[in-house]
Design goal:
The structure is a single chain. The protein has 477 residues and is mainly beta. The protein contains four helices and 40 strands. The strands form nine sheets. Strands 24, 25, 28, 29, 30 and 31 form a six-stranded antiparallel sheet that branches. Strands 33, 34, 37, 38, 39 and 40 form a six-stranded antiparallel sheet that branches. Strands 8, 11, 12, 13 and 14 form a five-stranded antiparallel sheet that branches. The termini are far apart.
């Protein structure tokens, strides 16, 4: 009996100490009913305050300002002070304002950010996307993080988040058990992702996510879009319904209903890089975007707005001041000769535009005459025709040192079906260089110097080929 009594006393003391430790943690963020609740303790160390402000997604402030009771940035972010007891201050932000559906039980927010690559891993090109959740259990924060919440499964021992963003790892992405479920914040770039939860070794889709896809191998995964664009239409305060429709959603005039925010109507969504044509419908009446500088007419002669997303690029052609018209054509516009015009500048002609990430061939058309870009040393070939070459959002540069006495060095590989003409490299300093945009995957390549083919002396990775000469190997993650 004495032994049992002693164990009981130790257990009571242990539970009491645990409660005391929890009570001392006054900096918390949780979801309750229809609100986000942020509680801070002004007596906390600055490091702890900065951490909770970061996790709450509040920018424009820090511990020093908060300790001076400067809450302007917190209020500007949509938070309201709801309670204050001595050094404890509680802020409230409505999930209705956030356009996120509320959770019934509170969830404490983890401060652990897993080491994910955070790059989209979806296998197919997606033009656009909007999320469809019964309850918004996955959403972006103003801090740039993305929050994943799994309600329930409170008896589970371990829960992981796994998806295309971490190569479907079963080791990364451990979620934190909170009051009423599991939660994790991760860093993700804009894009489309597939994901699942692993609950005690059992893979499951997100029960609150209405978007699912078959991965082609008999598995069903949940799909999440990390938004990268907000379409806005100012004015129209008396309108009942405003919709945006475009070529990206096959001109569906009922799908993308916009929301009234202040003096404008807005719609968040994911849009891929490229050229998008769209218009608004205000109570059924068609309206082009007044903020868009690009306009095109459809077959009925009605105006549509144009949005270009991607890498900013400037095409410049010096001279030709007496030319009447100069156009740009390339594989990005299917070589249409009178589609993209340049404007006159002090030095000649110029065009500032946006193109999706990729590798392109192009030419200028000066009063009907097609010419390569005289300022660009890089060339590529299509159907035996030499064109200027440019890469948008370059992510890899091929380099070959030496060979300064050569006139031309080209890059050839699996990315151009080993065309003998290859890509002309530029001589800079003691190197020959050319930059590309390359998607994740494996690439084989060689340099061609005159009639001689060589593997890359600066790359130790190579593999045999049918000619017993070998090919250099490049893996892009």
């Amino acid at each position: 009996m004495r032994c049992g009594r002693s164990v009981f006393i130790v257990l009571v003391l242990l539970i009491s100490s645990m409660k005391t430790a929890v009570a001392q943690n006054q900096n918390i963020l949780y979801i309750a009913s229809n609100h986000l609740i942020l509680q801070i303790d002004l007596k906390s160390p600055s490091k702890q305050l900065d951490s909770i402000l970061k996790i709450a997604g509040i920018s424009g402030t820090n511990a020093q300002k908060v300790l001076k009771e400067d809450f302007a940035a917190i209020k500007n972010d949509g938070w309201n002070i709801t309670e204050r007891k001595n050094n404890i201050i509680r802020f409230d932000r409505s999930l209705t304002v956030l356009n996120d559906n509320p959770q019934d039980a509170p969830y404490e927010i983890t401060i652990h950010i897993p080491d994910f690559d955070g790059k989209p891993g979806y296998p197919a090109k997606i033009d656009y996307g909007v999320n469809k959740y019964a309850k918004a259990t996955v959403f972006g924060l103003s801090s740039g993080l993305t929050r994943f919440i799994l309600p329930g499964s409170t008896r589970a021992r371990r829960v992981f988040l796994s998806g295309s963003f971490n190569n479907w790892s079963t080791l990364k992405g451990a979620m934190k058990k909170a009051d009423g479920g599991w939660i994790i914040d991760v860093k993700l770039e804009a894009g489309v992702y597939e994901y699942k939860y692993i609950i005690d070794g059992r893979w499951t889709t997100d029960p609150n996510n209405q978007l699912q896809v078959n991965d082609g191998e008999g598995n069903t995964n949940s799909v999440f879009f990390k938004y990268n664009y907000t379409i806005k239409l100012p004015g129209y305060p008396s309108a009942h319904k405003v919709v945006v429709a475009g070529d990206f959603n096959k001109w569906d005039e009922n799908e993308l209903v916009m929301e009234k925010k202040g003096s404008a109507w807005e719609k968040q969504l994911y849009l891929s890089d490229g050229r998008h044509v769209y218009h608004f419908l205000v109570d059924g009446s068609r309206v082009p975007d007044p903020a868009s500088t690009g306009k095109v007419k459809d077959e009925d002669g009605k105006l549509n707005s144009v949005l270009n997303l991607g890498g900013a690029i400037t095409f410049k052609l010096n001279g030709y001041k007496n030319a009447r018209k100069v156009f740009l054509a390339g594989d990005f516009n299917k070589w249409k000769p009178n589609d993209i015009s340049l404007a006159k500048s002090i030095d000649g002609w110029v065009l500032k535009t946006t193109l999706p990430a990729g590798n392109y061939q192009y030419k200028f058309i000066v009063d009907g005459n097609w010419i390569t870009d005289p300022a660009n040393p890089h060339y590529a070939f299509e159907d035996g025709e030499r064109n200027s070459f440019i890469a948008v959002k370059q992510n890899y540069t091929f380099k070959l040192k030496g060979y300064s006495g050569e006139k031309t060095v080209t890059l050839n590989g699996s990315f151009n079906n080993w065309d003998d003409n290859g890509y002309t490299m530029a001589h800079k300093g003691d190197e020959w260089v050319i930059s590309f945009y390359l998607k994740p995957g494996k690439y084989l390549y060689k340099f061609k110097i005159g009639d001689k083919w060589i593997i890359d002396p600066g790359n130790k990775l190579w593999e045999p080929n049918e000619f017993d000469t070998g090919n250099s190997v490049l893996w892009m993650e």
